[in-house]
Amino acid sequence: MWRIIVSFFCISFISNASYSQEASYDKSGYASLIIKFSGDYPKEKPITQINLSNFFVSEKPIDFHHLNDSTLFVSFYTYGPTLYYFFYNRQYCKGLLLPDKLDVLNINYVDSSEYSTHYTGSFKDLFNHSIENGEMIREALFSGNYFSRKKPVTYLSANDYRDSILKENERMLSNVSNKNHSEFMQNYFRYEMEGVSKLFFLYNDYNSRAYKEQKKDSLTIKTPLQRDLSFYENINITNYGDLDKYIAPQSNLLKAVRQDSLLRLPNILNSTPVEYKAQLEKIFGLEMKGKKNMFYEIMIAGAYMDNINIEVPLSEQQKLDILSFFSNSNISNYILYYNELISTNKSKSAKYYLPFKKEQDIVFDNIINQYKGKVIVMDFWATWCGPCLAAFSEIKKIKEKFENEDVVFVYLTNESSDKGSWNKQINYLGGEHYYLYYNQSKIINKRFAIEFLPSYLIFNKKGELAQQSLGAYMGNETLSKWINEALHP
């Protein structure tokens, strides 16, 4: 069983494209995928939603269109190479699509259960090596004991911690990348995991790893090590503006950089792109010396998209600023396209809550008490958790089955989920959603022994725990049985 974070390998992927394809990397347009079935294929296709990520969005869910009984199709407006992933028959499928390109996946059924796949497109090696890549990531994050926390380490400074992470990152990349004989997969793994590990350990997990201990009375207080701008030396953040890096878009990492209070970047909605770039140049100018890449443009466009992704629309002045600033109209067109979408695609199907202050550690009873007299299906998930997202498509039928019963579906996630991605997913899912702080979710997880995602708790109408499935979806048949037992004890 894979640990929680392993599903995060859904975040980004690299291609085996030749340099001639790079002309498409800095373009916007409609990317498309068609899935064709042949042979003795099932009437009900065991396929989930497709989730999309590029430089500016992460884990955006959309549905396949059923053109006919044997053909599925999806097309979307994007900028640059865009990662997609979905599950077919519970098998992980991933790849990259280019603007103005159509990829084709043929699924041929030999009989009602055996099938083969054939992929046609620029990044077919990525699709064909899904399982191998997953195993490499599993070793990198878990079984290989890299970045281990078993032995507490005392760091002299924030930069000392940074250097230890970068050194361990290189050791992991060197060892694990060679486990696959494909040169493409070796390079892809390096591109992908270099960014993922930086996000985890230099940003998301920094405060819990890089600290000094102070004794106060009988207590031991852990204080995060103070950083200054020299912390960014050797992280090489500006490399993610290189055109060849577009095939591994690190949207969450660059967003973490933009939100880093150390950099004091302005709120793009209260300033201009020129002012935003000036601050970037103060910080990264020396690192960018001699480089001619898209780092500044990607960061500024991302700053606008961070707001659009949480449904904060642009003003007319901001639209003009964007059109005036970006010399590449592919970027400005992309930003303005998605700005227009938020006014037309808002969903009212989901209720979501951020009701608790961070200082309030114990929140579970407050949540559960809101649904007295109802059977509660509580889903613990995260936006980066592939199995969580795969289960959503299966549970959809259960939600439809019990929509007129006293049953409520409640979803809990924490700060590990990107807020923009969370907003997109909950509007897609519907239901009741809670976004918790780490300290709040930690107490709940300990109370119910939750170590893996997804996990599910079923409560009867009295608010008593009736059933649970920890670390995996129990399947529709079992869930339906549990709900009925809770409804009719």
From TrEMBL:
GO terms for molecular function: isomerase activity. GO terms for biological process: cytochrome complex assembly. Its main location: other. It comes from the Bacteria. It is found in: Cell envelope. GO terms for cellular component: cell envelope. CDD domains: TlpA_like_family. InterPro entries: Thioredoxin-like_fold, Thioredoxin-like_sf, Thioredoxin_domain, Thioredoxin_ResA/DsbE_sf. Keywords: Cytochrome c-type biogenesis, Disulfide bond, Isomerase, Redox-active center. Coiled coil: none annotated. This is Thiol-disulfide isomerase or thioredoxin. The lineage of its organism: Bacteria, Pseudomonadati, Bacteroidota, Sphingobacteriia, Sphingobacteriales.
